[in-house]
Amino acid sequence: MTIASDLLATDFATLPDLIRAHARERGSSTAIADSQGSIDYATLDRTMDRVAAALQRDGIAAGQAIAIVAAPSTSYLSVFLGAVRAGCVATPIAPSATPAAIAAMIADSGAPIVVLDEVMAQALADERVTARILLLSDASPAPEGAGDAELLESWLAPDAARPTPVAIAPGDAFNIIYSSGTTGTPKGIVQSHAMRWAHIARNSAAGFDTAVTMIATPLYSNTTLVSVLPTLGWGGSVVLMGKFDARGYLTLAERYRATHTMLVPVQYQRIMALPDFDAFDLSAFRFKTSTSAPFSAALKADVVARWPGLLVEFYGMTEGGASCALNATAHPTKLHSVGQPMPGHEIRLIDDDGVEVPPGEMGEVVGRSPAMMNGYHGRSAATRDAEWYDAEGNRYIRHGDVGRFDEDGFLILMDRKKDLIISGGFNIYPSDLEAVLSTHPDVADCAVIGMPSEAWGETPVAIIVPRSPEANPADIMAWTNAQLGKTQRLSGIHSVSELPRSAIGKVLKRELRDSLTGTAA
User: Is residue 294 within 8 Å of residue 504, measured between CB atoms?
Assistant: First the structure.
């Protein structure tokens, strides 16, 4: 037995301790690689020590947030993990947010220090950021009001520095992830060390100890971290890709002999659509996963048929609750579902009054598991709104989705509850309409939203990305409506060159509604 294997066999271990063990036992093994090179576990561990020691030197207490706004890199992850070793709360923030929103999230987190790359330092140059600024590059200007910014390398403690050990309890905060709020400051989701340990421990059979995990999604997303952190926890290698493009991804995967990956459905879609996909050598792949957005059954089937290794779809939330897993390779007749609750995870379905619905009926998904958020940072009322308690007082998290279980216990999702369209008193699920619309040969991508209607209250409207300029929206709508029930029929259809999506592939339906109503900011 090794130190790392002993830790992994316990009921609770911290990621910094696991990385320390890997540094001692496989120090020369690659931990993280990016476009600039790679670092091994010994270097990662030493850099984490330098970060943690510098934080302690500067009087930054355990429990304080350390914000990071930058593109993925080995330095980014080293700071993130070093902050965690010091007992601080890593707070990655989306560079894609507006400068004002980024400044607001930094302020909301209470972070005394924020780490920026050159691009983000320039983007925030006109914002008032009162946190101390650490720059990843000497070409970066300091935001207004920041005082004297410092280079990260100059700020770090000396190479031989060792921080004072910090006792970390399971319930202590590990990180804050900000939700993709559409109005006001996004909510900061506080995830604990226990929650992250649950993510690492549940992957005991996934082979992460020998993994080369390709990462093509941003590091501020939980979608990414649920693959990155288990890979490092088990001692595998993480390969960070910059801006995603399908052919570039396959080139890197072939070069590194990637074995694991987490991709969102739109990335799978773009990769599988490449005419020369089958020319790439992907034979090293053992484990592919997906989450964060609807994953069509047809696309899952294509990935299973043509891409080596298991395909597993995960359904869950950044806030935690419960997760489902669908082994698409093992369950080809269940590809329309998101799988079954994982071991130790429990899902209930409730109605609008918070009462459980009978078996087989649809309801709002609520879930509980060992992996649940502490709450929203500084927002106790919002935390209470996200919770549901059963008759025994057990805490569940509201997922915000509507779904039902089939006869085999597989969860079939309908839609986000907020996206449900109520037209003339009838419930219309956009996913039902999108499933029909997406099969039209002239439709490359689509979304259905509810729009105000004097006659019906709301009415379904489709937005499509046509495959060619010759596609006729009116003909596509007539074809679609001929296959829908009377109460489901589209009342309008609009063509766009591309659907607005978040960095992890979710269609931004709020933006679509705003663009059609003329209320976009």
Answer: no
- Of 34, 369, 32, nearest to 227 by C-alpha is 32
Instruction: Select the more confidently predicted residue: 1 or 115.
Output: 115
Phi, psi for 288 (deg, rounded to 5): -120, 140
Compute CA distances 85 → 81, 143, 484, whole Å.
Answer: 6, 28, 55
Q: What is the mean pLDDT of residues 113-141?
A: 89
Q: Round to whole Å and give the CA distance between 217 and 158.
A: 32
Q: For the segment 138-174, what is each residue's pLDDT rounded down to a tens digit? A: 666 666 655 568 999 999 999 999 999 999 999 999 9
Give the max Cα distance, the chain: 72
State the pLDDT at residue 429: 87
Given a cut of 70, is residue 37 above it in pLDDT?
yes
CA 489 to each of CA 428, 436, 439, 450: distance values in angstroms, whole numbers, following the listed order: 9, 11, 16, 12
To the nearest whole number, what is the mean pLDDT of the chain?
93
Contact call for residues 19 and 80 (beta carbons, < 8 A):
no
CB contact at 8 A, 27 and 8: no
Least Cα distance to 499 among 484, 515, 477, 488 occurs for 515
Taking CA atoms, 209 is separated from 47, 236, 260, in Å, by 21, 5, 11
Domains, the chain, ordered by start = 3-201 (3.40.50.980), 344-417 (2.30.38.10), 420-517 (3.30.300.30)
Residue 184: pLDDT above 60?
A: no
Give the count of beta carbons closer than 10 Å to the beta carbon of residue 136.
Answer: 23
Q: Cβ neighbours of residue 515 under 8 Å, at least 6 residues apart?
A: none
CB 264 within 8 A of CB 291: yes
Amino acid at 166: V
3-class DSSP string for 462-520:
EEEEECCCCCCHHHHHHHHHCCCCHHHCCCEEEECCCCCECCCCCECHHHHHHHHHCCC
Structure tokens at 132: 């101390």
Residue 518, classified by CB atoms within 10 Å of its CB into exposed (0-12), middle (13-18) or buried (19+), is exposed
CB 411 within 8 A of CB 360: no
CA 274 to chain centre: 25
441-456 pLDDT per residue, tens = 999 999 999 999 888 8
> Residue 89: pLDDT band by 50, 70, 90 thresholds?
very high
**Exposed, middle or buried by CB within 10 Å (0-12, 13-18, 19+), for 474?**
exposed
